[in-house]
Amino acid sequence: MNDIEAVRMLKKEKKRAFKYLFDTYYNRLVAYIMTYNHNKAQAEDIVQQTFINLWENRQKLDDNQSPKGYLYAIAYNTYMDAIKKSKKQKKIIDEIWEHALRDRIEEDSETQEKRIQKVKEVIETLPPKCKKIIQMNKVQGIRYKDIAEQMGISIKTVESQMRIAFTKIREAFENDTLLLFALFKKLRIGNKD
């Protein structure tokens, strides 16, 4: 059997002709597609799809011409379709990922702002001396020693007032300890020097 006989028999739905063409061209087509994609599994999938297309469109084949050019054209077009589909899917995935990140950033910013507001509200409820000390240290960045000098009190009193403030703030955020740490950092908490 040769290619032209195979085409004529294929049009009569002879499976033996299909097998002949498959055996003759399968490995060649896989190698051909691999020159583009360097991926044997994907190349095999494309070539299998090529033979499915050959079978489905067998009536369109020219009885007097080898199907070789047709098979290579189908394989190439199937490969290009796969590339386009892959790029489209990647673009969609990238857009979804970007959208999710944007939402997460906005959500985190909103949540952080709410927490900062809550810290400010808790600070407003502190006794006047305690409130002034925490604001001087955490908002203005003044060290404990300098606060003690400016207010005419001992460093131990500053430390004691800071403990009171931290206790009240911790109580307000008792289920939110990790985020409390981030807020203290943002409010410059930890400036004891």
Sheet-strand content, in percent, reads: under 5%
Largest sheet: none
Counting DSSP H or I runs of 4 or more residues, the number of helices is: 8
> How many structural domains?
2
Q: Order of helices and strands, N to C?
A: HHHHHHHH
* CATH architecture designation of the largest domain: Orthogonal Bundle
CATH class designation of the largest domain? Mainly Alpha
Instruction: Give the averaged pLDDT, no decimals.
Output: 83
Q: Kindly, what is the distance between the CA atoms of the first and last residues, rounded to a whole number of angstroms?
A: 93 Å
Protein name: RNA polymerase sigma factor
Keywords: Sigma factor, Transcription, Transcription regulation
Family: Belongs to the sigma-70 factor family. ECF subfamily.
Summarize the structure.
The chain has 193 residues and is mainly α. The chain has 2 domains: 3-92, Orthogonal Bundle (Rna Polymerase Sigma Factor, Chain: A), CATH 1.10.1740.10; 125-186, Winged helix-like DNA-binding domain superfamily/Winged helix DNA-binding domain (Arc Repressor Mutant, subunit A, Orthogonal Bundle). The chain has helices at residues 3-11, 15-37, 40-56, 68-124, 128-139, 144-151, 155-172, 177-186.
Report on the architecture of this protein:
- There is one protein chain.
- The chain is 80% helix and 0% strand.
- It is mainly alpha-helical and 193 residues long.
- The protein has 2 domains: 3-92, RNA polymerase sigma factor, region 2, helix turn helix motif (Rna Polymerase Sigma Factor, Chain: A), CATH 1.10.1740.10; 125-186, Winged helix-like DNA-binding domain superfamily/Winged helix DNA-binding domain (Arc Repressor Mutant, subunit A), CATH 1.10.10.
- The protein is rod-shaped.
- It starts with a helix and ends in a 7-residue tail after the last helix.
- The model is unreliable at 188-193 (pLDDT under 50).
- This is RNA polymerase sigma factor.
- Residues 117-163 form the RNA polymerase sigma factor 70 region 4 type domain.
- InterPro entries: RNA_pol_sigma-70-like, RNA_pol_sigma-70_dom, RNA_pol_sigma70_bacteroid, RNA_pol_sigma70_r2, RNA_pol_sigma70_r4_t2, RNA_pol_sigma_r2, RNA_pol_sigma_r3/r4-like, WH-like_DNA-bd_sf.
- Residues 21-88 form the RNA polymerase sigma-70 region domain.
